[in-house]
Amino acid sequence: MAPPVATETLSSLGFMPTKAINGKGLVKLNGAKTLEDMVDRWESFNFDPIRESQVSRAMTRRYFQDLDTYAESDIVIVGAGSCGLSTAYMLGKARPDLKIAIIEASVSPGGGAWLGGQLFSAMVMRKPADAFLSDLGVPYEDEGSYVVVKHAALFTSTLLSKVLSFPNIKLFNATAVEDLITRPSDKGDGNVRIAGVVTNWTLVTMHHDDQSCMDPNTINAPLVISTTGHDGPFGAFCVKRLVSMNQIEKLGGMRGLDMNTAEDAIVKRTREVVPGLIVGGMELSEIDGANRMGPTFGAMALSGVKAAEEALKVFEQ
Ligand code: 48N
Asked: Which positions does the record annotate as the modified residue 2,3-didehydroalanine (Cys) (predicted)?
């Protein structure tokens, strides 16, 4: 049986330990009713009454209000992996006035950052990425030139919870970006600038070939930040789309694993690749032919910091 969590730990987590009830330790959760009110009174327990339509309306009213609000966004982040979420965290802190939509194809955001590597739970970040963990409030073990978070899910869940708590950021998960909105480039050179994204339910996007076309939705935004990773069903989506719309000639293709080379390159090369589109994280390895770094995540966090910095330059102009 796991040792009981020490009282001081519970209170530091915001729980107020209460007296044991019938020998069962209970913590008093902040809220209208305490758990104490329920123990040993289950026979008279009942939830407040509800009608199913109230649940449906509570969800749909808010969702469609969000779709309306974010139909015109300031920034769209494509992909809620470690880089996309790190970008959102930095932007959410720096610019609470900007409307930021995050579009994530999977039901579960977080990308590849729920495990440290090959199903192992500890997550390694090389210094100076420990500065990001400290800013985020994620504890880690210091191993000299690198740090270790005891479980990757602790990093990702903390980052996700902080991002979702920003009032100016909305996550649309289970939703895929299936194209980019473009406008003629201001330079009149026949190229384009990116002006938003085309979205659909991910399941619809995955079945355009075997279902009649189900038209998409759109989000207008002067800036898109793509962090769609290098693998997965939609990996490197936006850079591949740039090739298919002849905005870049070809992809460099991700190179073999070399941690020292890969992480520096990814952070340094995070940038606006075409007007209106910043690319960060492992999607960059596909466009630049950068090496992969494997199971170390410092570059994802700091590429997110750099992507946010590049985005702020656009809004400062
Ligand atoms: O975690 P990923 O795949 O991408 P990053 O760049 O945030 O982090 C990469 C990192 O996990 C690694 O690959 C590590 C460091 N290993 C490196 C190596 O050498 O193997 O997250 C991308 C997210 C995912 O959640 C996808 O579901 C999502 O982007 N996504 C999309 N969401 C919406 N529309 C799309 N078209 C789309 N494509 C991908």
From this structure: 213
Write the pLDDT tens digit of every residue in 97-119.
Answer: 999 999 999 999 999 999 998 88
Classify burial at 43, counting beta carbons within 10 Å of its beta carbon; exposed 0-12, middle 13-18, buried 19 or more: exposed
> Would you put residue 165 in left (φ > 0), alpha (ψ -120 to 50) or beta?
alpha
Whether ipTM tops 0.90, in short, is yes
The separation between CA 106 and the C-alpha centre of its own chain, rounded to angstroms, equals 11
List pLDDT tens digits, range 248-273: 999 999 999 999 999 999 999 999 99
Which of 282, 285, 286, 287 best tests ligand 1's pocket when mutated (most atoms within 8 Å of CB)?
282
97 known ligand binder: no
Residue 27: strand, helix, or coil: strand
Q: How far does the chain reach from its first CA to its final CA, in angstroms?
A: 58
